[in-house]
Amino acid sequence: MTRTPRTPRRSRTVALTASAVLIALGATACGGSSGTSGSGAPGKGGTLTILDKADFDHLDPQRVYTTEGSSMDEEIVRTLTGWDETGTTPKLVGDLATDTGTPSRGATVWTFHLRHGVKYQDGTEVTAPDVKYGVERFFSSDINGGPPYAAQWLVGGAGYKGPYQGKELGSITTPDKYTIVFHLDQPVADFNETTAMPGWSAVPKAHDTGSTYDTKVWSDGPYMIKSYTKNKELVLTRNTHWSRSTDPIRQQNVDEMDVRFGQDESAIDQQIKADAGTARTSIQQWPIAGSDLAQLAGDPALKSRYYKIPAPGINYLAINTTRVKDLKVRQAIEYAIDKTTVRGAFGGSAYGDYATTMLSPGIGGYRKFNLYSTNPAGNLAKARDLMKQAGNPRPTMSIAVENTPTQEHFADAVKTALERIGIHVNISPIDAANYFSTVNNTKNQYDLTWGDWIADWPNASTVLPTLFDGRLIKKNPQANQDLSYLDDPKVNALIDQAARMTDVKQRNAAYGRMDQQILKDAAVVPLTYMNFSDMSGSGVGGVIPDTILAEPSLVHVYVKH
Description:
Elements: H1 18-25, E1 47-52, H2 67-73, E2 81-84, E3 91-94, E4 102-104, E5 109-113, H3 128-136, H4 149-153, E6 172-176, E7 179-183, H5 191-194, E8 223-229, E9 233-238, E10 256-261, H6 265-274, E11 282-284, H7 290-297, E12 306-319, H8 327-336, H9 339-346, E13 352-354, H10 380-389, E14 396-402, H11 405-419, E15 424-430, H12 435-439, E16 448-454, H13 464-468, H14 472-475, H15 489-500, H16 504-520, E17 524-535, E18 540-541, E19 544-546, E20 551-553, E21 558-559
Parallel strand pairs: 1-10, 1-11, 14-15, 14-16
Antiparallel strand pairs: 2-3, 4-5, 5-7, 6-7, 8-9, 9-10, 12-16, 12-17, 13-17, 18-21, 19-20
Helix pairs in contact: 1-6, 8-10, 9-11, 15-16
């Protein structure tokens, strides 16, 4: 899934000062009852302010596929399984389900039993048919943008069009009110990690508003939507029917969460750094701006409220193989990109190490290799030689980036590098709040596209098949993740082989070969293995570094009084 900075570039030419932002937001501290946070126990009451550069792509659980949106959804909806991250490593646990599920028939059938007494915001009980209906929403053309796993794995998914025409998917059965069974068309040993994603949640049919559900998500989590004005503000308030006794993951410490959208990314950084007024009880979900990162990462005064979260993911440049058809030209791009200036745009070494593979260290299947320049600054001579072998073309290419200052600097770095080898680059900035819904639509093809990807769970099966299975392009024309438009039979065959392998070592070896083949195709330029850095005010406690989403998790958050 994606995790990105999302604020409209050029919407502000000058960053607001910290004091100006404080005036704009008001300098009122949090209210509510006093807590005992000074002794280490969570404070109760008050309002947590969340400062985001732009609105979420989606909050509809079947449509959300960004880490910011997924992290926010954890406060509103509950999934069949989830991650307990209070320990040293994430632990998969039952969430709506009583446990992590039971596989049978060679992991082609998975059964989950729901907890009794989980309540929606109106006090009605969550049932297995509600979860079935929620998952069936994945298949509707009106509900697009989410992950592809349901369509890939559930028997009959290829021809199913969703529940809005009154039809059900036979491969999801509910033998009783608290039992749900999924029938898969292939063995999936880690299916219960898939079900920790937001889409594997309950949606009550009576409250489903279809494509407008983003602003009307019906809560069974600790918080419910009080008000939502797109691109301006989302306010969550307590779901009084939520019970801690049925929830092994979340707490309900603050009275409200006030999410405010649309400020300049550097203004948010400076406001939280200043730690005055509302900023004291504020946190950010989008990473620190590249222009601020080096300074803030090295500031000892911020250490206790600075979160550096290693991401199981990759920052990359996709090369559209259907538009840039000459392999030599694509290889020249691989050699020409100066990763030092690219990484500088995102904040320098604090942002992450230089990447040479699409699988990042720590993900099952990662294999260390480098097919192109050993110098991260590139190899201009080799790039020019490859262009010569291609007949010295002088093409003009478009590059899609978000319209943020960080992305603007990144695009300029790419443009400068490629124009040195005769490739002219036109920068196409896209409104950050709509970036992925734009580039993932096959009607919008660019020669070069910036992307980043966080593994849906720490396994190569959630990276390479999603990003490079060319057969999914036609299946998901409005939610295509293959930004390279790569449809290599060798890669597709390796994807199928790996899916059938039950031996983890063999499967990981197949993913390692797959990674190498993708780089041989010069379909992408891996840029950096990412860290994400965020800050909070000094009055925020209980933040858990979420290494699955690379987000500051809010499931135990509280404000100090």
